[in-house]
Amino acid sequence: TETKVWKEFDKAKLYMADLESGLHYLLRVELATHKTLEGAELKTFKDFVTVCAKLFPGRQSVVKLLEILQEWLVSLPLDKIPYDAILDLVNNKMRISGIFLSKKVQWVGCQGSRPELRGYTCSLWKLFHTLTVQAALQPKALINTGLEDSPQIVLQVMRRYIQHFFGCKACAQHFEEMAKESMDSVKTLDKAVLWLWEKHNVVNNMLAGALTEDPKFPKVQWPTPDICPTCHEEIKGLHSWNEAQVLQFLKYHYSSENILHKYAE
Ligand code: FAD
User: Fold this and answer.
1) If you average pLDDT over every residue of the chain, what do you get?
2) CA 216 to chain centre
3) Which burial class, exposed, middle or buried, applies to 127 when counting CB atoms under 10 A from its CB (0-12, 13-18, 19+)?
4) Residues 6 or more apart from 118 whose CB is under 8 A from it?
5) Could you tell me where the DSSP H helices lie in the chain?
6) CA–CA dist 185, 178 (Å, integer)
7) How far apart are the CA of 203 and the centre of ligand 1, in A?
8) For a disulfide at 38, which of 49, 80, 181, 188, Cβ 3.0-4.6 Å?
9) CA distance 191 to 152
10) What is d(CA 133, CA 136) in angstroms, rounded to the nearest whole number?
11) How much is the pLDDT for 4?
């Protein structure tokens, strides 16, 4: 249940409440539309959980839940899993102590001025930006997890997650077109961070002025000069990005140091 009281927040910060509410929505709402997981879907979900278990910069209780879910998925000899079994684990039916993912949806930096605006899709962007940044900050984190040792790994897992599970099918199709065009040419973990930033700005540009835009949160090329002045340059009178500065900014903005726990219960 969402409260209608506006929560004050700092747009230069990341809120754990948004990331956790996003995970809650992904695991308990979006995934619930798939009654059984098998084949490429199951593989995608397993890989997504592995990436999160290793890289999500969250609270112990949530990271532990992700780790238990990952170990269970990896050890399972089945090629088909009912969603309800996943839900039982997410809800900690076995009552393992110290594992917990709140069922409360608490949008903070992802609040919309109307309930149908922002929220989950905003949190999903933030989650994947966070994961690409964490992979760049901890380049060894995914070694020996069974995932391919590639600088694109987080992007490729995101790509497959969006393809198989993201509820917005038009979004998924558009994202896949961008992925097909250039994701394969990403050669370093830093470039993966920048790739996702750039594509998110392409989406922002496409959606500026659209009906889905929250009037309180107009679509802009991000980060704006007020939060990252050095990201912006003018060359011969034309705007250009200083990508080295953008990278540095992203690596700070989506790091655990920049996460506030306010509103996360
Ligand atoms: P969002 O765009 O959701 O951004 C969330 C937050 O991320 C911002 O508030 C800001 O803090 C930060 N941010 C903004 N830009 C960047 C950037 N370039 N790099 C890093 N961080 C940034 N909707 C459609 O109508 N059509 C589509 O085709 C479509 N495709 C999508 C594809 C994907 C993969 C996803 C996750 C969502 C897509 N959406 C699409 C939804 C849309 O992008 C927004 O999520 C939604 O409109 C809510 O916008 P928002 O104002 O919360 O900002």
Assistant:
1) 96
2) 22
3) buried
4) 107, 110, 111, 112, 214, 217
5) 16-25, 39-55, 60-75, 83-90, 120-137, 153-165, 169-182, 189-207, 243-253
6) 12
7) 7
8) 80
9) 9
10) 5
11) 72
The pair of three-digit structure tokens given for residue 226, joined into one six-digit string: 């007020």
Distance CA 237, CA 221 (A): 18
Q: What would the pLDDT profile of 55-110 be if each residue is shown by its tens digit?
A: 999 999 999 999 999 999 999 988 999 999 999 999 999 999 999 999 999 999 99
Phi-psi bin for 236: left (phi > 0), alpha (psi -120 to 50), beta? Answer: left
Helices (H), 56-108: 60-75, 83-90
Domains and CATH numbers, the chain: 14-260 (1.20.120.310)
* pLDDT, tens only, 32-41: 999 999 999 9
CA 199 / ligand 1 centre spacing (Å) = 10
The pLDDT score that the predictor gives to residue 265 is 74
Bridge partners (DSSP) listed for residue 4:
none
For residue 200 and ligand 1, the question of a CB distance below 6 A is answered with: yes
Q: What is the DSSP pairing of strand 14-15 with strand 259-260?
A: parallel
Q: Are 36 and 80 in contact (CB under 8 A)?
A: yes
The Å distance, Cα 234 to ligand 1 centre, comes to 26
- What's residue 109's pLDDT? 97
Q: Calculate the CA 74 to chain-centre distance.
A: 22
Count CB neighbours of 135 within 10 A. Answer: 24
Ligand 1, atom 1: closest residue by C-alpha = 122
pLDDT average, residue stretch 197-219: 96
Q: What is the rounded distance in angstroms from the CA atom of residue 86 to the CA atom of residue 75?
A: 14
Q: What atom of ligand 1 comes closest to residue 110's alpha carbon?
A: 52
Q: What is the pLDDT of residues 138-151, one digit of tens each?
A: 999 999 999 999 99
